[in-house]
Amino acid sequence: MSHLITYKNITISLSGKSILNIDQLDVAAHQCTLLTGRNGSGKTTLLKIISGLLKPNTANIHYQGLDMSWKQAKPYIQKDIIYLHQQPYLFDASVSDNIAYGLHRLGESKAVARQKVMHALQWADLSHLAHRSAKELSGGEKQRVALTRARILSPQLLLLDEPTASMDTDAKQQTGLLLQRLKSEGVSIIISSHETHTVKHIADHHLHIKDGQLETIEPSTDSDKVSVLKPSKKQSVT
């Protein structure tokens, strides 16, 4: 299995406290990884480092055949990797305008953007909400709009921070369906979540942050339990 991107020697300290000390993380292309850990374990910190939003103390990256420092890689990863917060920010505009925002920033013509947005709304089963103000949407609807807005930019890797938190069962199912569609289209996904029962059927791999390092969790013979492998020098989600 090929790797989309590799991160080596990820370290970061906040307020003098070591948060992460990860030797290596290989992200497999076209697969989904579940990331778990206690509150404060560094899940969000890791996602922001991966996406180029947070500068680590150290990190080296291998991407597109190039070995780079985090600073050198930042323009590449910010173009190809999208991070979605637990409560995604939407503009006080229609759903269609929110989805089109990234396309306009890339310089797409209004006609092309309109066509892409129409197809995106159909893909996400959101056509009936096209002209509704994003501020009027439920939490689950906002998350699906944010996923659709991210997809329309054709990311290589999508990072989701607690995407189904505080949703009812129906909203979780609809969000899970979109995640499955994204995965089937070849988008690599990392999902940070405490609700493992909601996303475990989508995930190909499960990584757990403990004491700043990554552990690989493998399925046990009991489908409702997992067995934890001790962290090794290299964590590969392949």
Can you describe what's shown?
By secondary structure, the chain is of the alpha/beta class. It folds into two domains: 3-89 and 155-237, 3-Layer(aba) Sandwich (Rossmann fold); 91-136, no CATH class. Helices cover 33% and strands 31% of the residues. It contains seven helices and twelve strands. The protein has helices at residues 43-51, 70-80, 95-105, 110-123, 139-151, 169-184, 196-199, and strands spanning 3-14, 17-28, 32-37, 58-63, 66-69, 81-84, 157-161, 188-192, 205-210, 213-219, 226-228, 235-237. The strands form two sheets. The chain has a seven-stranded mixed β-sheet with strand order 6-7-8-3-9-10-11, with helices on both faces. A hairpin with a 2-residue loop joins strand 9 and strand 10 (213-219). Helix 3 packs parallel to helix 5. Residues 220-233 have low confidence and may be disordered.
What's the SSE blueprint?
Elements: E1 3-14, E2 17-28, E3 32-37, H1 43-51, E4 58-63, E5 66-69, H2 70-80, E6 81-84, H3 95-105, H4 110-123, H5 139-151, E7 157-161, H6 169-184, E8 188-192, H7 196-199, E9 205-210, E10 213-219, E11 226-228, E12 235-237
